Recover the amino acids of this structure.
């Protein structure tokens, strides 16, 4: 089946990230400016620390008068609970992860191993839009 042979690396989009000390307000502005539904939170060198969805930001904004004062690190879903993918993974496996975990986006990462420590550098995002675009491209061929 074609979705098993096409890889995440063939279809993913550029990453949209904020740093851990960014505020909820910054996160909301990024969401609008970049026109995305999920933002990934990174530390130095683009290392993956967490994810924030539009509903996470909506909840935080509704629960507080000053979204400028709340750092995204307080509301994000954090590592090691982030479901991720790599450019080498098949689009089918990545799509199955989205469905299984009921999420809209996966960070595409490069795995970095130093000694016994493994970190994940964010290099892109894989979303339902990538799957829809691929579906249409294949159908139109
Ligand atoms: P929304 O919350 O806007 O419906 P999602 O369904 O993508 O968007 O997110 C649901 C929850 O899962 C949110 O709390 C979010 O922080 C978290 N989340 C989003 N992406 C991931 C991911 N790749 N791995 C783990 N958790 C995620």
């Amino acid at each position: 089946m074609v979705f098993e042979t096409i890889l995440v690396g063939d279809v993913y989009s550029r990453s949209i990230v904020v740093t851990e000390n960014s505020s909820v307000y910054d996160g909301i502005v990024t969401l609008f400016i970049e026109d995305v539904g999920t933002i990934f939170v990174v530390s130095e060198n683009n290392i993956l620390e967490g994810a924030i969805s539009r509903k996470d930001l909506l909840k935080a904004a509704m629960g507080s008068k000053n979204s400028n004062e709340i750092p995204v690190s307080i509301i994000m879903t954090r590592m090691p609970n982030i479901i991720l993918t790599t450019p080498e993974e098949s689009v089918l496996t990545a799509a199955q992860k989205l469905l299984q975990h009921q999420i809209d986006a996966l960070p595409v990462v490069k795995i970095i191993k130093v000694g016994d420590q493994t970190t994940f550098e964010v290099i892109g995002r894989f979303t339902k839009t990538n799957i829809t675009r691929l579906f249409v491209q294949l159908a139109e061929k």
